[in-house]
Design goal:
2 copies of one chain form a homodimer. Chain A has 446 residues and is an alpha/beta fold. Chain A folds into 2 domains: 280 residues, Zn peptidases (Aminopeptidase, 3-Layer(aba) Sandwich); 151 residues, Glucose Oxidase, domain 1 (3-Layer(bba) Sandwich), CATH 3.50.30.30. Chain A contains 13 helices and 16 strands. In chain A, helix 10 links the parallel strand 14 and strand 15. In chain A, helix 2 crosses helix 8 and helix 8 crosses helix 13. The longest helix of chain A has 19 residues. At the A-B interface, helix 2, helix 3 and helix 7 of A face helix 2, helix 3 and helix 7 of B.
Chain lengths: 446, 446
Amino acid sequence: MKLWLATIIVTTTLTLGQQVQGSELKMDNDLAYNLVESLTVEVGPRLAGSEADARAVAWAEQKFKQLGYDKVWSEPFTMQYWERGNASLRVEAPFNQALVLTALGGSVGTPFDGITSQVAMFDNLQQLQQADPVDVKDKIVFINQTLHKDIRGSFYSQVVGARAQGAVEAAKLGAKAIIIRSVGTSNNRFAHTGIMRYADDVARIPAAAISVPDAIQLSKMLAIHPETRLSLHMKNNLPGEVTSHNVIAEITGSKRPDEIVLIGAHIDSWDEGTGALDDGAGVGLVMATAALLKQQKPERTIRVVLFGNEEGGLIGARAYAARHAAELQNHVFASESDFGAGRIWRFDTGFGEQALAFAADIQQDLKHLGIAAGTNTASGGPDVSVLKALGVPVASLQQDGTDYFDFHHTPNDTLDKIDPAALQQNLQAWMLMTGKIANSSVDLRK
Amino acid sequence: MKLWLATIIVTTTLTLGQQVQGSELKMDNDLAYNLVESLTVEVGPRLAGSEADARAVAWAEQKFKQLGYDKVWSEPFTMQYWERGNASLRVEAPFNQALVLTALGGSVGTPFDGITSQVAMFDNLQQLQQADPVDVKDKIVFINQTLHKDIRGSFYSQVVGARAQGAVEAAKLGAKAIIIRSVGTSNNRFAHTGIMRYADDVARIPAAAISVPDAIQLSKMLAIHPETRLSLHMKNNLPGEVTSHNVIAEITGSKRPDEIVLIGAHIDSWDEGTGALDDGAGVGLVMATAALLKQQKPERTIRVVLFGNEEGGLIGARAYAARHAAELQNHVFASESDFGAGRIWRFDTGFGEQALAFAADIQQDLKHLGIAAGTNTASGGPDVSVLKALGVPVASLQQDGTDYFDFHHTPNDTLDKIDPAALQQNLQAWMLMTGKIANSSVDLRK
């Protein structure tokens, strides 16, 4: 491993001349960490479409230039803006107390006087869908489903439906509002936000999440006193269409510049944490990867794309795909880092059969970092999955996500949750994979 | 241990006839847990002097009666009320973002337009005290001291001075406000509240705490950009004098009813968590202890005191000591549970020399629960220390407080943080110690 490190990692500690906002960038093993530190400290939370999002875009452009990228530009797209306002949830007598809640992204607010009602509790979305409208009408629906941990975060997709579709299903049955148990794995008293959806032909009701301890608390209250009433007040702003940006930078290929190896992450974050794990770590990793590979003069072009508004539903990724539709045939590869900052434990691909020997070759190199061979069913990452659907070959360096949903989408997603050593292992893997593909002429397409 | 359990713990699962607010009380090993569950769920946060505090008092009186106590009463005392209002702290350009903060108990608010100023950062209170006023005047003082963990929580007293006295010291040097790094051991993004003090002849400036990740964040900003400005807005209410109560209940002694064995905890809690560890666990423990000992017909009277307004500075304890001054000579012993819900690991006493053999005898019995012999310098607990100072013999069943300051005085102090098995071990120790002392005629006084 030491030998490998010496050959792959650029250890020169070249300090870039210009000091921007006081933070220094050294071209060494710490580069990814230093970038996520700079982003989270100097920009902080960066909700898509906000003033902070614009500062994040400016930050990224400036850092790309400092890092010696050959081309740096941004591409605008329009999006519906949503902004969190004050929110409170109180239990009425006899158990008068406040519960910790957060609005789900995209939710409407309540009327000024709030919504006060009894609660209809369900174990999961499916149980709500099968409910008798009589039991739901005019109530506040409460979905109390637990998210369990695993390395792949594979239970998330089973539980997150309540967040995304719960408001529509509850409104169909006449509910006044919906609250869900946070889609998170920690018992810290933080509520977990995330995007939710409405349907055109169904009433738009307010949707929020309560923390895991509060969900336990509320279920205990309902067991003692099923008539418990809640009072929900929530003010959110939905001012309409705004412009955000994807930020793009390239290291031009030395031999086949038209062939694009895309590595990405997303620049936006939710507004309550500083977006260190989601997705500052990914931003730092992909920005550092191509910057450090530059001195190896990669044969193909490495394009780093920092997608905008991933959290709102892959809005930047769809804009990128639309704008670059004619060029997608030149995208020989794409991959995204967007699952926190845990160590990479598996290498998955989405390659054609003819490229699987090459995939095995990459994995042999990754093996030294403790990375196992995976499947050929990789998504490539949330934003990159949009490109995969359009025929671009992808791979996923799978991160250990055991603790990811302890922090994800909460105020607790902050820099101190990143283990610098794990981030270095990520960087080594990203450089190895990206460098190998950028110097190859293997056709990865299915 | 099994044998011991069988002899000491009342295992009859007698369900009390009347069901109050739906929760059942069984006279078994789970009684302490069931009481803290009932208190935290059905009453929740109970800031001294608030409406919830009054509900907690009513809850305690009702539970004592249900549990078969021979006498139950409350004793009023007056106190200065303080109530938290909205608070926000924002970093101004170029690093615009919100930091997580909470007002310290007793703090005044800011002017309506807030306080916006540069920051004067110090490592600890001593460094602030030695500062040149020129470096502090018109600034927001920031004390950035880390609290380290240990089983005794012994670093707390070294760090908490910044919280208690920081506002006075900062104001003496002309500061406009003070913020401190939370006096807590977790890197969860919760700020840690607690009481602070003003001095009569020093300007009253607003005082608040920021979470540990925010303290790290702010110190990083100041390292990059020392001129960073903060904007603090805080509204607290100090409406004046109100009445709160100590709640008292007794199991009358079968042979020497005039001799009082006092076991205590505090009924009030801070307002942001549900006060499960501080001090719901203690409340559950002492209420359960005497209730379960009743069938053993203890020779001395066991008096359970749930002190009011401990958090505001032992206000209920002082009122108790004043009201019972003439009777204190009959207080043959006092002890309090107020350090969370961790396992008891050591038995400390504050006895006269003639009683140390008896102390050793108690410890021999406690040994089966993994409890070691301690010192003869016990405080007895925060409220009970007031009685100790007046000559009442005390003991402390020392709890493992390694994780206590992860949760203490934050929104994260909730029921799920209590390990029921550890609470059972506490209950066994409390029953053993209290039973032994209530059946003894040894004079414990110094």
